[in-house]
Amino acid sequence: MNFKRIIFLISFCLLIHIMIASATTHTVIVAPGGNDVFDPANLTINVGDTVRWTFQEDFHTVTSSTGNNCSSSGLFDSGVLNTGNEFSFVFKTAGTFNYMCLPHCEMGMRGVVVVNAAQTQDPDISLSTSTLAFGNQDVGTFKTQSMTISNAGKGDLNITFPSDDLFACTPAGSLSIKPGKNLQINCKFIADIVGPINRNFTIVTNDPDEKNVKFTVTANGQKGLFGFVDRTFRSKITANPNKTSAVQIVDFNNDKKEDLYLTGFDGNLMCKNTGGAVFANSTTQNKLGNNGADARGVTWGDADNDGDLDVFIANFNAPSSVLKNNNGVFTDQSSGLGLFASDNSPKSTGGIWLDFNNDSRLDLFVVKDGAPNLLFKNMGGFQFANVASSAGIASTGPGRSVVAADFNNDGFQDIYVVNFQKTNRMYFNNGNETFRDVTVSAKVGFSGASQHAVAIDYDGDQNIDLFVVNNNGSSLLYRNLGNGKFQNVAGSAGLAGPKKGKSATFSDFDHDGDYDLLLAQSDGGNLLYANAHGKFERVTNVDLSNANNPSSTSAGDADNDGDVDVAIGDSDGGADSGDSVYLNAGGGNNNWLVLVLQGSVSNRSAIGAKVLLRTGILLQVGVVSAGNGKNQDSMPLEFGLGAATSADIVVFWPSGKQQSMTGVAPNRKLTITEPAN
Q: Which of 40, 79, 290, 309 has its CA 20 to 30 A from that of 71?
C-alpha cells in the first residue's frame, strides 16, 4: 500500500472571521502516479466553503501545516478523513493559500486556494411602489391593491406590516422574506371620508439601511348607496370583559342619543352615548351589571308609562330581572313577576314586551328552555300575573327567542316562539286574552337550528313577513300571503346562500325605500344584502368582519345623522372581544325621515303601533317593536324616501286610533304623539 503525506505550506494568510449564511463544497481530484496532479490546481472559493481532496489511491494520512504563524484551527478545520480515499477542510478565513504535495514538491505539484471574504448577510428591502392609489371610492366600502416587497440582500428580511381598522393586508403582521425572494402583499383599504384621502404608513424592517420604510395610501372618497365604517375603537367599546350574547340600541336616559347595552354570560355592560357614537361605561352608575346571571336576552319598554324605558333581563343561571328606570338609574322590581316563586325560575332564554290585550299596559312574554313559557299580564304598579296557561300559550320547548307582531292585521299582536331543533310555534291572538296555535296551517313550523326571528314587511305589501335565522342551513324568509298562511321564499328572494346564520336585522341602509338585511354568521362571515323590491343581492365591498364570533346584531342611528348604524355583539370577551360599532356612510343623495312615536291612550312606548308611509307609488310599513327576545333595534322608525321630497303618513295606534299626516318634509326627526281623543 502506497502511503503519502500531504503537507499544506501556507505562504499568506489573512485572518477575517465572518459569519456566513451558506457554504459550498469544492472537490479537488488527486490523480495517482509518480507525480501527483491536482485537478483543478487553482480554486477560488468563499469563506465557509469546504475543499474536499479525493485521492484515487487506497489510503492517505493527512496533516496540516502550522507554519507562517497560521494555525490550522484559525484558518480551517483540521483535516477529516471521510473515507479511505478523501478528506476535507472548511476554510474559515479570507486569504490566498499556496499548498504543495510532499515528497514530490520538486516536481512542481503546487496548488492555490483563493478564499474570498464572505459577503454581508444584511437584507436589502425594496418596494414595487411607494404609493397605493385606490382612486375614486365610495365611503364605507373597500377596494384592493397589491405591492411586492423584495429582498435583494444576503440575509433574511424581517418586516412588520402596518394595519388599522381601515387598512389591512394579507399576509399580515410579522413576516420574513428569504434572500433573493419577494412577497406580494394584498392590501384592502376602506375610505372613511368624502374628498381626498392621503395617509402615510410605515413598514418596520431589520434592513440596517432602511429600518422604517414609508409608503402612502391615496383615494378620493365619495358618497355611495352602501358603506359602513368600523368605528369600534373610536366608540370606546373595545375589550369588553363580558362574553356578549345579546345587544340593544336604546335611549335609556332620554337624552336623544341612542345608547348601547351589551348583555352576556358573565355580566352586562351599559355604554352611554356621549355624542357622535362615542360611548362611556356607565354600568355601575346606572345599576345594570347583572354579573354572573348569564343573560340570554333583553327587552326594553315603558312598563309603567312614566316616560322612560324599563328593562327585562332574561337570565339563564338565576331568576330573571325586571328593572324600573328612575331617570336613568334602575331598581329591581323582580318580586312582582308572578304570584309564586316558580313563576320566575332560571333557564330563561329571552323575553319581549308587548301589549297583548291592548289595555295600554305592557305585558311580558318570557321564553324558557325546558320549562313552560310564561306570559305575564301587567296588573299595574309593576305587578305581573302569569296567564300563559289560561291564554293557551304555555308550550314547553328548548326556547331561544320570541317575536310579536300583528301578522293577520286584526289589530292585536300575535306571537311567534323560536325553538332550537324543535318546531317553532305561531300563535294568533284571539283578541280576548287567549291565543290559538296556527303553526301547521300557517306553515311556519321550522324545526331546525333556529336562533331567532325578525318580523318585517320586506316587500311593502302591508303584511308582516317573518325571517327565521338558521345556524345549520339556509335561513327562512316566510312571505306573509295575507290569508293566515306563509310561504318560504328565501331561495327565490336570493337568500338561500348563507348557512351559518346567528343574528339578523333589517333596515333601509341605503334610504331607497326597501328594508335591507344584515346577517351575522357564526363563522364571522357577516353579510349585507341590498333589497330591490323584494329581491336581495349581496353587497360585496362592505367589510363587517371585526366580530368573528358574532352572537347578536342591532340597528339604530347612533350618531344622529339620519341613517341607520349597526352594532354587532361578539361571544368572545376580554382582549379577544369582537363587539363592533359600524357607522353607516351610505345612503347616497337619498332623503330620509325618522319618526318617534309616543302613545297617550296606547302604551307610552307605542309598542305595536304600525306606520304606513307613502311616497308616490312606494308604500312602506314600519312597526314599533320591543325586539326579538334577544336583541332590540332602536325604537324610532327610520324610513328611506329615495328622491321623494315629501311623505304621507298614517299611524295605526294599538288603541285603535288612526292618525294621518300629509306632505311631511324629509331629512329630519319627527315626534308624533297619539291624540288623547
A: 40
Which cell is 493 given? 328572494
- Give 102's DSSP letter: B
550 upstream amide cis, omega within 30 of 0 = no
- Digit-coded pLDDT (tens) for 450-477: 999 999 999 999 999 999 999 999 999 9
d(C-alpha 344, C-alpha 335), whole Å = 9
- SS3 call for 284: helix
Assigned C-alpha cell, 655: 288603541
Q: Which of 328, 296, 327, 291 is nearest to 312 (CA)?
A: 296
At residue 105, the 3 state secondary structure works out as helix
From residue 352, how far is each of 333, 402, 558, 608 by CA, in Å? 16, 7, 23, 12
Cα 425 to chain centroid, rounded: 32
What lies within 8 Å, CB to CB, of 348 at 6+ separation is 296, 297, 314, 315, 316, 320, 366, 367, 368, 369
User: Is pLDDT at 318 greater than 60 in this prediction?
Assistant: yes
- Nearest 5°: CA angle at 167, between 163 and 171? 60
Q: What are the cell numbers at 333?
A: 322590581
- Residue-level pLDDT at 242: 83
SS (H, E, C) 68-90: CCCCHHHHECCCEEEECCEEEEE
pLDDT for 235-280, tens place per residue?
A: 988 767 888 999 999 999 999 999 999 998 888 999 999 999 999 9
In 438-547, where does DSSP find H-type helix? 439-442
Q: Which residues contact 564 (CB under 8 A, 6 or more apart)?
A: 507, 508, 509, 555, 556, 557, 584, 638
DSSP 286: H
Please say if the pLDDT value at position 573 is more than 90. Answer: no
Show the cell assigned to 565: 348604524
What DSSP line would sit under 642-662, residue for residue?
ET-S-EEEEEE-TTS-EEEEE
pLDDT in tens, 378-434: 999 999 999 999 999 999 999 999 999 999 999 999 999 999 999 999 999 999 999
CA atoms within 13 A on the CB side of 33: 9
Residue with cell 484559525: 74
Could you count the other beta carbons within 10 Å of the beta carbon of residue 415?
A: 23
- Find, among 595, 539, 628, the residue nearest to 296 by Cα: 628
Q: Which three cell numbers stand for residue 259?
A: 345608547
Mean pLDDT of 481-498: 96
User: Residue 575, SS3?
Assistant: helix
pLDDT band at 92 (very low <50, low <70, confident <90, very high): confident
Of 310, 314, 247, 302, the C-alpha closest to 279 is: 247
**CA dist., res. 31 & res. 60, Å (int):** 13
Q: Going by C-beta distance under 8 Å and a sequence separation of 6 or more, which residues neighbour residue 10?
A: 65, 67, 68, 70, 75, 97, 98, 99
CA separation for the pair 584, 590 (Å, rounded): 13
Q: Which uninterrupted H or E stretch holds 234?
A: helix 232-235
Strand order in the sheet with 157-161: 131-138, 212-222, 195-205, 157-161, 173-177
Q: Which amino acid is at 25?
A: T
CA distance 214 to 225: 33
Confidence of residue 45 (pLDDT cuts 50, 70, 90): confident
